[in-house]
Inverse folding.
DNA sequence: TGCAAACTTACATCACGTGTACTTTTATGG
DNA sequence: CCATAAAAGTACACGTGATGTAAGTTTGCA
């Protein structure tokens, strides 16, 4: 059975990439609201209707990469390493996110997308929704990783506080400008503070 | 000059209330997406265009009360009580939110709105956006309340972890059903865990 | 009573998003 | 190599949310 992608699949992937790249270029050129879906479709040489068979909404074309990264991280987040405490597991998850943000050769693109998401309210809202649902999955994973040791509220407190600190740390760092290395450094410090707190409290210490 | 509201103001308030009440009734009756703005306007005996002079969007008519409550809380959050630590101040803010959620005589309406917001994705996204921006204001207020004692990252870590724990605590509690008193109890426990952590870390202890 | 400002309305317009039927392209089997 | 079926893409129509504009109506005030 077809280990080779096949012409059909390859064409789909090419169209999808053309839509994403064209959309991003247009958004950065003339602004998100000022760009219509019809223009994005024309730039990729497809019909407007076809755009919506690839992406459910105009926001999705910006956030689909972030969604995929999140999915990947959450899959590897599922299993607990031997001897790992809840705080350790969360720390490892956040480090995975940092790596996805920083180490890519697409660092420039990621930074541009971040700026776009932060400045466009509807994108910010969708991104927050994405992260909120991801946190629910993290709560489930954390409870499964420590069966009988954490109830739902304790898991929610752990995930919510660490990811909450990370989100606001990134956002505050971005708002006051500065190089992205510094922003990540600030966020890492914020997460460190939240984790230090967690480790001092009974159910998470080890 | 006009201490008495005036006929014009009273009429505006009545129309506004009619729009909110009618919208909420329709949303609960036949669902959020299934209700059009035109129907809401007809129920309040105004034109569709007038609806948008009262509310910027369909979501706004659901979230305007929450927005006002948040604004009120953030105003009173501004000043630090004598001898209060950052953790104390945050604890007080969260308690204010709990009171706004629980003690009202409109408890039923608030619960219904919460259920609506949680089940409709676009409302959930807007609500998260509202809270995210509120957290930024809390970071500013916290820094102003403790000048020279907290930098931006420390303030972000404190606000983000406590509010993050509260949000996820509420959401997890709501998801697994149960009476609203119990949900608030669970959230209070989640916040307590995050606060206990904060209090154990240097910049927030007292 | 009459004027000015605020409010409301009807109308036009645009973009997002979806349903549907039709055409084109790709895969497969004789 | 062609015929057929499945998949993808297209054209078209439509509903809804949201905004601009210019007129009409109500209110406050002199």
């Amino acid at each position: 059975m077809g280990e080779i992608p096949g012409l059909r699949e390859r064409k789909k992937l090419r169209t999808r990439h053309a839509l994403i790249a064209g959309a991003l270029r247009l958004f950065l050129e003339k602004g998100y609201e000022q760009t219509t879906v019809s223009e994005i479709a024309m730039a990729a040489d497809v019909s407007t209707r076809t755009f919506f068979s690839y992406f459910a909404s105009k926001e999705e074309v910006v956030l689909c990469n972030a969604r995929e990264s999140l999915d990947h991280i959450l899959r590897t987040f599922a299993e607990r390493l031997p001897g790992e405490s809840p705080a350790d597991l969360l720390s490892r998850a956040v480090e995975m996110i940092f790596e996805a943000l920083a180490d890519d050769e697409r660092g420039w693109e990621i930074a541009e997308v971040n700026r776009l998401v932060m400045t466009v309210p509807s994108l910010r809202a969708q991104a927050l929704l994405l992260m909120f649902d991801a946190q629910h999955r993290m709560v489930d994973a954390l409870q499964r990783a420590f069966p009988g040791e954490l109830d739902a509220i304790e898991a929610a407190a752990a995930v919510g506080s660490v990811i909450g600190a990370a989100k606001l740390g990134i956002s505050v760092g971005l708002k006051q400008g500065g190089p992205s290395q510094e922003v990540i450094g600030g966020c890492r410090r914020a997460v460190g503070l939240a984790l230090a707190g967690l480790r001092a409290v009974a159910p998470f210490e080890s």
About this structure: Chain B touches chain A through 46 residues (CB under 8 Å). Chain B has a mean pLDDT of 91. The first helix of chain B runs from residue 7 to 30. Residues 8, 11-12, 46-50, 53 of chain B lie near DNA strand C (CB under 10 Å from a C1').
